[in-house]
Structure formats: C-alpha cells, structure tokens
Amino acid sequence: MEPATSPSSSKSSPRFDRTSAAILDAAAQVFSEEGAGANLATVAVAAGISRATLYRYYANREALLDALKADALDAVARRLADANLERASVEDAIERIMRAFVAVGDRYAVLTHDQATLEAAHGELAAPLLAVLARGIETGVLRDDLPVEVLYEFLAGTILKAIALNQKHRLGLEEAGAAAAGFFLNGSRSRD
C-alpha cells in the first residue's frame, strides 16, 4: 500500500503554489537588491518561511534561479500576448514591447546579467519582436538597409539598457519604456 500524500505537500496543491510564489517574490526582491549571490537565508526570511522549507521547494540556488527565469519568461510572454502586437501600429507595438520587458525586467533585473537567461529569452520571445520589426521594414516604417536580425539586436540592447536605467532609478518604468522606444524608433525609422 502506498503512503498517502498530504494535499498540502503536493506540488499541485494551492498551498504549494502560494509558498512557491512567496519564495519567488522574495527571491526576486532580495536578488534585485543584493545580487544573485545573496544569502538564501535572507530569501527565506523575506518569504516568511524557514530555510528548510526553502530547500524543500528549491534544492539549491541554481534551482531557485531557474524557477525565477521560467517565471520571468512566462511573465514577458503573457505581457506580449496581451499587448496585441499584430494589431498595433509598428510604433505602438515597439512601445508595448518596451513596456512589457521593462516592467518584467524591473522585478527580475538580476536575470539580465545571466547569459543563459538572455539566450532563453531570445529563443522563447524573439518571434513576436522579429514579426513587428519585419512588418516595420515591409511597410516602410523602419529602415530597410539593415537586416531584421540587426534591428532585433539593437532592440534587445535598448531593452536591456532601459531595464538598467530603471534599476538605477534614473527613470521610472513608464519613462524608461517610453524613452527606450523613442530612442530605438529614432534610430531605426526609414530614412525615406
């Protein structure tokens, strides 16, 4: 006979989800303030749990950072889907892209320095951005003397800089997103 599993200990239970969410919230905050090397005991305290509970959910720092990465990528993907990029003008779509990334990047700024996260973001999130840029080139809104992949690299760099500026508190979320979108658009508009 198999032992009974308590619903509260099951990974699909609401309690697990609440505790996991609290841990991820705390980790995002602590890592944002102290860096990815922050003490995991500090994360546990911020989440209102014991270190033992933290380690039951996430066996080590790498597992916690992987969960943060997955959470961040899901959050950006949801924001991009909600932004209806395909229905917006190219300029509005780029502004929406910036807002989506800057808002999520504010919470998960520690991940912007992790090459694996950036590669995962490219792999999972590039398609809608490339589609907007290609549409911009095709419609004459964006310059056609650079391949879409080069414009994408400029866009990605502008997104990362906007997140960094927001983190340094030089700009707020909306201001950072708007400034980055304007900066990118001013450099990538068609010269015709």
Automatic annotation (TrEMBL):
Residues 39-58 bind DNA. Signal peptide: none annotated. Residues 73-100 form a coiled coil. PANTHER family: HTH-TYPE TRANSCRIPTIONAL REGULATOR RUTR, HTH-TYPE TRANSCRIPTIONAL REPRESSOR KSTR2. SUPFAM superfamilies: Homeodomain-like (SSF46689), Tetracyclin repressor-like, C-terminal domain (SSF48498). It comes from [Actinomadura] parvosata subsp. kistnae. This is HTH tetR-type domain-containing protein. Pfam families: TetR_N. Residues 17-76 form the HTH tetR-type domain. GO terms for molecular function: DNA-binding transcription factor activity; transcription cis-regulatory region binding. Keywords: Coiled coil, DNA-binding, Repressor, Transcription, Transcription regulation.
